[in-house]
Amino acid sequence: MTKAMGRRMPVAVAEGKKRPHEPVQAAKFASEAGVIIRDNTNMEALRAQPVAEGETRVSSVQVVSQVLPKNSSNSFLKSVGIKPVGTSQASSSSNEIELREQLAAEAKAAVQDELEDLKKRSEEAEEKLARTERELEEMKKLTEINTKAMEENNALLKRILSLNNASST
């Protein structure tokens, strides 16, 4: 709701009061914020979150400014003078950052362990391949030796048979 000439209507809530005194401002407040707040049970969960040592409890204004940008693209917070908290700012608590770093370190360690295991398997496979290649070369040499011996035996048998045939005739 804007007044004439395109100006934004300020919503003023008197100190100690829960809602604006003027009916038009109350309607603006109820239409843009109230519906979203009532529909969003997540706000109560955000407000009830335990506070870590050294941190302050999240104020109602911060909770509203976290939830409103997620649910709508209205300009209520800006017109009231509250800067919406970005999701990256809201989720970057020191505890969360610490948990992310710990998770990253654990993932890195797991990947490193897996990499070392794969290297070990690779080395074992290369050793096995080299051993198999040596055995294959030995078998080729033995086959060559056996082939030569068989050819010599065949030649010797042919001589014996030819001598035996020559003496029987």
TrEMBL record:
Residues 1-26 are annotated as: Disordered. Residues 101-159 form a coiled coil. Keywords: Coiled coil. The keyword Coiled coil applies. PANTHER family: OS02G0583500 PROTEIN, TRANSPOSASE, PTTA_EN_SPM, PLANT. This is Uncharacterized protein. It comes from Setaria italica (Foxtail millet).
